[in-house]
Amino acid sequence: MGKGALALLITGGTENWAPQRWRERFLRCCPDRIVALIPDDAIDPAMVRYAAVWKPKPGALGAFPNLGVIFNLGAGVDAVMADATLPDVPLVRVAVDDLTRRMTEYVVMHVLMQHRRQRYYEQSQRDRVWTPKLQWAAGALRVGIMGLGVLGRDAAEVLARIGFNVAGWSGTPKSVPGITCFAGEAELPAFLARTDVLVCLLPLTPATRGILDTKTFAGLAHDGVLGGPVVINAGRGGLQVEDDILAALDDGTLLAVTLDVFATEPLPASSPFWSHPKVTLSPHNAADTDPDAISLYVADQIAAFERGETLANVVDRKVGY
Ligand code: NAP
Ligand code: GLV
């Protein structure tokens, strides 16, 4: 019998997620394996041993009776986990340097935009006014990262290297040199109370849904150099209560937000976020999954699995990440 076939089930509707791009990359790095883009390519479902997916249609993976491993083509598995019919086989998520570095770029850029008051200087340029403001040192800004996993830890370390006063919050206790670590519900208030810029890099699970709400915003530090707390969410839209964000921006509980993710994506044209003066937004591309890096990652994992080795970055289905 030949090698098990790899089925690609990819939706997303953006340039990066064009299914043909992904098929081309997988064909290149799996030359001795059948790679079938579903539903375009005809294949006997019984031949499919692996599936590489991004937002597959609920129930679609149930079509493959011999499925052995599901590879999610991103770091967050919430869309896949929402499928109640998901086959009970290992679910592997992405954890690769390429994606991590992209997220760190995004986080550092948006923290620096606040720290160096980039919006103010853009407006000054438009107004042709020369009014430099007093600039504090990076160490005066307290950045707090929610989620000290693969992405959160790297962003925290780079921010600390720049000189920011960085803390992180995770489910289980961590020890990261140069980072003040908090863990669990009990330590959340203390973490928030020392945070001027809150960066959310949590996964979306039943335990984290809606965590960015009025109570969390009220718990942030309100005595920092920026004049109010800032929230940056690049995790998932379901982590934020969007009405609470708008209310907190309008009543001054929050100074500003940067949002890469939203409850409804694409963000509807009618959303108030588009034109809110205190909102910076991006179209869920803080850290795009790159087909070159990720097809190689999946191909390597399949090869290791077939050698009898342990799969890396397998999702714990009980906790949802
Ligand atoms: P990860 O390595 O699994 O890390 C998740 C972190 O969140 C861990 O530190 C975990 O704590 C913590 N956590 C989970 N549930 C928690 C809870 N209830 N309370 C406190 N901490 C909790 O994930 P990752 O690779 O860093 O990715 C994080 C998320 O980023 C993904 O799930 C995805 O939603 C998002 N993402 C977004 C983009 C984008 O372009 N916007 C791109 C990639 C990823 P423990 O360490 O104790 O387990
Ligand atoms: C992107 O959002 C990812 O989860 O990788």
Rg of Cα set: 21 Å
Mean pLDDT: 97
Q: What general form does the structure show?
A: elongated
Instruction: Tell me the number of structural domains.
Output: 2
Poorly predicted segments: none
Largest sheet, strands/sense/barrel: 7 strands, parallel
Q: Percent helix among the residues?
A: 25-40%
What's the number of extended β-strand segments? 12
Q: Write down the CATH class of the largest domain.
A: Alpha Beta
- The fraction of residues assigned to DSSP E strands is 15-25%
Provide the structure class: alpha/beta
Which ions, cofactors or small ligands are bound in this entry? NADP nicotinamide-adenine-dinucleotide phosphate, glyoxylic acid
Structural notes for this entry:
The chain is α/β, with parallel strands linked by helices and 321 residues long. The protein has two domains: 5-96 and 289-306, 3-Layer(aba) Sandwich (Rossmann fold), CATH 3.40.50.720; 98-281, NAD(P)-binding Rossmann-like Domain (Rossmann fold). The chain is built from nine helices and twelve strands. The chain has a seven-stranded parallel sheet with strand order 8-7-6-9-10-11-12. A five-stranded parallel sheet has the order 2-1-3-4-5, covered by helices on one side. The two termini are 34 Å apart. The mean pLDDT is 97. It binds NADP nicotinamide-adenine-dinucleotide phosphate (NAP) and glyoxylic acid. Glyoxylic acid binds at residues 74-76, 94, 289.
